[in-house]
Design a protein that fits this description.
The complex is a heterodimer. Chain A is of the alpha/beta class. Chain A has 11 helices and 10 strands. Mean pLDDT of chain A is 87; it is low at 1-14 and 16-29. Chain B has one domain (54-294): MetI-like (MetI-like fold, Orthogonal Bundle), CATH 1.10.3720.10. Chain B is 73% helix and 0% strand. Chain B has helices spanning 13-48, 54-58, 71-102, 108-122, 125-138, 147-171, 175-182, 188-217, 220-223, 245-253, 258-294. The chains are: A alpha/beta, B mainly alpha. Chain A binds chain B through residues 85, 87, 90, 92, 115-116, 118-120, 122-123, 125, 127, 129-134, 141-142, 144-146, 176-178, 180, 191, 194-195, 197-198, and chain B through 105, 174, 176-187, 190, 194-195, 199, 293-295. The structure holds adenosine-5'-diphosphate and magnesium ion.
Chain lengths: 295, 295
């Protein structure tokens, strides 16, 4: 057993599955060779009731890097990113088939705790959703629900997280003010700070900039480049320039008409290094999309 | 080259007719509702305003007009409604939380409960009085004609209304708060307790004011629970006998002597003043709760 896998095993112990296989699974999936991936998806399908929203996804997501999901709207990008921290559990009727591995733990193992998973794998939503509390309380929320930190510890966590999200200088004099009074871009950085405060390993971002103006978007992108040194980031974006600017790997999805019926189902078309996806894509549909001829 | 643009709006005859009629109806309904209140208060005031004095609040009910007052019924009403509120408010709020957040949505059992609650809200108050008489005053509980029995019945009466308004308030809390909290590793219970509940309190308070106001004027069920007697001492606890404002007013009003009818009007003024003060307190508390959340 290699040293890396051992750390991965201890890292995921409390998810409830540490006796799982420690064999590398790179062979089973297509796309780029990724060493010690954070996520490994094998034949993943997600359904809402009988409707299959996305199917047959195989991919691996590297650590400390940014992976982008792109594709036309409705192809299941949000659905897929939500399965990575079991946010889909909250939708009645949503179900996941196939295997979603986080390091060597099965996220959908019956013993895995969704609460613990979401603590380790944070999420930033499309629309900034600060709580109707002060800036300070927004950031302190995660640490508070995960334990009983002392006031001094909490102060330190809040400052560190706000600095981490490049928001500290703008709000340090008004930590007690309502978070709802911040601008959209600030609110989104607050939401990022809020997720940093629980020290996750992964941050999932579902179109984090789609409600923001170009300058605020740029700041979030800069922030993501900074964050990837310490965190694994998966981002859904409909903005191809954004994917090209920030991500190292890109997965391109489309909707295909299901041969069994008239329903449309999302499919992963191509997954590779971002520069290859944008310069020498293998699939003509990818090329059409990245050159703006489709979508 | 300049062009003269006329910005003088001219609505079509039909549109301005609809607009005007609608406005007329709005003013009319405001006028009717305010007019009714003004009419009631002013006729009571002109009849009995001169009689108002602190003596009315310090004297107990009596057949002797010079010594007759409202102290014990006023205190009795406050006891009964106060205790009923203390019981019904948390119970109702928690029931609503359970139904909205934890009971399986749309399953048969919770639909049955929902239907029941809606029916209960429509049950005539006197039926609750009969149930109280049979089961609490005499039957299993054998609590007799006491403040406790009365508070239990009034609490039952308030519960369905409080549950219904609390559910509305909880439903109005944006789901993005819940999602955000869960994404930070909060348990569903923590998300509810720390975010949903505080956000739902102002709405619940508004609805509960109505329930409390209705309860304080309620007389039919308490008629069956022994409130219609001249009790010339204040309740000292749950086991005390009691009387209440509406029934004492009724008692005075049914006396053939004119002074007592005027006294009854004075009692109505006192009851309205109490209602006004209670509403004011509730509104102030609600505003404080809202401000605290928005800092
Ligand atoms: N909660 C849901 N219930 C039912 N169907 C859903 C739900 N969320 C998304 N879908 C469907 O799943 C498909 C994929 O949606 P989504 O993952 O949101 O796509 P994308 O994020 O790529 O635009 C769409 O056809 C959408 O209508
Ligand atoms: Mg989406």
């Amino acid at each position: 057993m290699s040293n890396e896998l051992q750390t991965a095993a201890t890292h995921t112990e409390s998810l409830g599955n540490n006796q799982g296989s420690t064999e590398p699974m790179n062979e089973a999936t297509s796309g780029p060779k990724i060493i010690d991936p954070v996520f490994t998806l094998e034949e993943v399908s997600v359904s809402y009731g009988k409707y299959v929203a996305v199917t047959g996804v195989n991919l691996q997501i590297p650590s400390n890097d940014i992976t982008a999901f792109i594709g036309p709207s409705g192809c299941g990008k949000s659905t897929l990113i939500r399965t990575l921290n079991r946010t889909n559990d909250l939708i009645p009727g949503a179900s996941v088939a196939g295997k979603v591995m986080y390091h060597d733990a099965d996220l959908y193992d019956s013993k895995a705790s969704a609460v613990e998973i979401r603590r380790r794998i944070g999420m930033v939503f499309q629309k900034p959703n600060p709580f109707p509390k002060s800036i300070y309380e927004n950031v302190a929320f995660g640490p508070k629900v995960n334990g009983r930190p002392k006031k001094s510890e909490l102060d330190a966590i809040v400052e560190k997280s706000l600095r981490g999200a490049a928001l500290w200088d703008e709000v340090k004099d008004r930590l007690g003010a309502s978070a709802l009074g911040l601008s959209g871009g600030q609110q989104q950085r607050l939401c990022i700070a809020r997720s940093l405060a629980v020290q996750p390993e992964v941050i999932l971002m579902d179109e984090p900039c789609s409600a923001l103006d170009p300058i605020a978007t740029l700041r979030i992108e800069e922030l993501m480049m900074e964050l990837k040194k310490e965190y694994t980031i998966v981002i859904v974006t409909h903005n191809m320039q954004q994917a090209a600017r920030v991500s190292t790997y890109t997965a391109f999805f489309v909707t295909e008409v299901n041969p069994l019926g008239d329903l449309r189902t999302g499919k992963l078309v191509e997954y590779d290094e971002t520069r290859k996806i944008f310069s020498t894509p293998l699939d003509p549909r990818t090329e059409a999309y990245v050159t703006g001829k489709m979508g | 080259m300049s062009q003269t643009i006329s910005l003088k709006g001219r609505l079509s005859a039909r549109r301005s007719f609809i607009d005007g009629t609608f406005r007329l109806f709005l003013y009319l309904s405001i006028f009717i509702s305010l007019g009714m209140i003004f009419w009631i208060v002013s006729s009571l005031w002109s009849q009995a305003g001169w009689l108002l004095s602190w003596d009315l609040l310090t004297q107990y009910p009596s057949y002797d007009i010079d010594n007759a007052g409202f102290q014990s019924p006023l205190v009795g009403s406050l006891w009964v409604v106060g205790i009923a509120t203390l019981v019904a408010l948390p119970t109702g709020l928690l029931t609503a939380l359970y139904l909205e957040e934890f009971a399986g949505k749309g399953n048969k059992f919770s639909r049955l409960i929902e239907l029941n609650i809606q029916n209960l809200a429509g049950v005539p108050a006197v039926v609750f009085g009969l149930i109280g008489l049979a089961f609490i005053v005499r039957g299993f509980v054998k609590w007799g004609f006491t403040v406790g029995s009365a508070a239990a019945v009034i609490a039952m009466l308030m519960l369905p209304v409080i549950i219904i308004v609390s559910r509305e308030a909880i439903r109005a809390v944006p789901p993005s708060y819940r999602e955000g909290a869960l994404a930070l590793g909060a348990t569903p219970w923590q998300a509810v307790w720390r975010l949903v509940l505080p956000s739902a309190i102002p709405g619940t308070a508004t609805g509960s004011i109505l329930a409390v106001s209705r309860a304080i004027g309620e007389s039919a069920p308490l008629l069956l629970l022994g409130a219609l007697s001249f009790v010339t001492f204040n309740p000292t606890g749950l086991d005390s006998p009691f009387t209440i404002m509406p029934l004492t007013i009724f008692k005075y009003a049914s006396d053939s002597r004119e002074e007592f009818q005027i006294l009854a009007s004075a009692g109505s003024l006192i009851l309205m003043a109490v209602l006004f003060v209670l509403n004011l307190i509730a509104i102030i508390l609600r505003d404080i709760a809202t401000k605290k959340r928005n800092v």
